[in-house]
Design goal:
single chain; alpha/beta; Rossmann fold; UDP-N-acetylmuramoyl-L-alanine:D-glutamate ligase; Protein-Tyrosine Phosphatase, Chain A; six-stranded mixed beta sheet; globular; EC 6.3.2.45
């Protein structure tokens, strides 16, 4: 089968492309913006990429066009208009995946506003180390595997389950296509303001997911999340394994100790101990979710803990991109205010109290571009010593939104202006934390080059 993927460089569609290629299909694709790590992965697989969505690609005549949710109707996507005019076969990415990859597998789906990519990667690594040879599709590149997706030879398949809509012609959340037997509900906050009116609308989509889990399946739910409890209160027909709860909740998995070294307890009973390199309470909770999900497919908690000791996080999750004159430059995917705050807090707990954190971010997600959560940014950034925001592409005034932070925050008109401001402020011992869900205009390389010019080395 020849499939041509529109929007191939998105993390999900790129992973789908890798799976299709591994399965022996001919895969081509197109996108408007190509940036690492997905572009590097696709090129390494020998997948032919076309820049843009030109109608001339209709002449490729694939067996089916697979449409990413970046694609809309209208003049921005002439290829899509040509597909519709020609009556050519097309489908969505989640639908193609469900029919050609997930059918017949024990699907473990990881959903939640935050931590999906990291938790999915943890779970895949646990099952791999347990000898289950899982397939997986992750919205990033787990460093343990070096690829974002793999078919796997075993029965299990681990997938990052996104609540964003499927395609312009299918407005259901992606995850309703996956039909998991094990569903992780990691957390739930308002996000994706471009497609959801409020948190209640997202809760409805999560309940659609709950409805698809069979009676013999398991829902792994964060006991701290009121929104998730509301979802389950609407109706639940499967076993529920909670994590992160209180001691008196005898069946709930919980952690005792610091995030980098903690006991895993079920009620008062210690069932495992995790010692690893990740930081932050959020990763401690992610680990509990992965351990609980793995237990549903027969992996004991102590086996999971042993696997997590060798877990390497996903690229773009507090990834150190370089160091010059004692100044470290990190890349992180955080873009929602809660994720920004959690990421800064995790780094703050790791660094020396005398060292500064310079938070450099661009509000790039559709929700942030709309300004829906701009009022939360001072709260998200308050643990940083200095913050730098990219104004480019925003319809709202970042200076006004960050005014409560006073001189602690600066705004740049574009990436180059931001780089100039950061380089003027940076000094040895600083940690430059770049946060974006996009390529951020190559800011990491620009900062490292600028630091070398200023400090040498």
């Amino acid at each position: 089968m020849h499939i041509h993927i529109l929007g191939i460089c998105g993390t999900f569609m790129g992973g789908l492309a890798a799976l299709a290629r591994e399965a022996g299909h001919r895969v081509t694709g197109c996108d408007a913006n190509v940036y690492p790590p997905m572009s590097e992965q696709l090129q390494a697989l020998g997948i032919e990429l076309t820049q843009g969505f030109g109608a001339e690609q209709l002449a490729l005549q694939p067996d089916v066009f697979v449409i990413g949710n970046v694609v809309t109707r209208g003049e921005k996507f002439p290829l899509m208009e040509a597909i519709l005019d020609a009556g050519a076969p097309y489908t969505s990415g989640p639908q193609w995946l469900a029919e050609h990859v997930l059918a017949g597998r024990h699907v473990l789906a990881v959903a939640g506003t935050h931590g999906k990519t990291t938790t999915t990667s943890m779970l895949a690594w646990i099952l791999e180390q347990a000898g289950l040879q899982p397939g997986f599709l992750v919205g990033g590149v787990p460093q343990n595997f070096g690829v974002s997706a793999k078919l796997g030879a075993g029965k299990t398949f681990v997938i990052e389950a996104d609540e964003y809509d499927t395609a312009f012609f299918d407005k259901r959340s992606k995850f309703v296509h996956y039909r998991p037997r094990t569903a992780v509900l990691n957390n739930l906050e308002f996000d994706h303001a471009d497609i959801f009116a409020d948190l209640a609308a997202i809760e409805t989509q999560f309940h659609h997911l709950v409805r698809t889990v069979p009676a013999g399946g398991c829902i792994v739910a964060n006991a701290r999340e009121e929104a998730l409890q509301r979802v389950l209160d609407r109706g639940c027909w499967s076993e529920v394994q909670r994590f992160g709860g209180r001691k008196e909740e005898s069946g709930s998995l919980r952690a005792r100790g610091e995030p980098q070294a903690f006991d895993v307890l079920r009620g008062s009973l210690k069932v495992a101990r995790v010692e690893w390199g990740l930081i932050g309470e959020h990763n401690q909770l992610n680990a509990l979710a992965a351990i609980a999900a793995a237990e549903h497919v027969g992996v004991a908690p102590e086996q999971s803990a042993a696997a997590l000791a060798t877990f390497q996080n996903v690229r773009r999750r507090m990834e150190l991109r370089g160091e010059v004159a004692g100044i470290k430059v990190y890349d992180d995917f955080a873009h929602h205010p809660t994720a920004i705050r959690t990421t800064i807090d995790g780094l703050r707990r790791r660094v020396n109290p005398s060292e500064r954190i310079l938070a450099i971010f661009e509000p790039r997600s559709n929700t942030m571009k709309l300004g829906t959560m701009k009022a939360q940014l001072p709260w998200a950034l308050e643990e940083s010593d200095l913050s730098f925001c990219n104004q480019a592409g925003l319809s709202w005034d970042a200076k006004e939104a960050l005014a409560p932070m006073g001189t602690q925050a600066q705004v740049g008109a574009d990436v180059d202006a931001l780089v100039t401001a950061v380089l003027q402020a940076a000094k040895p011992g600083d940690h430059l934390l770049c946060m974006s869900n996009g390529g951020f205009g190559g800011i990491h390389e620009k900062l490292l080059a600028g630091l070398k010019t200023r400090f040498g080395g």
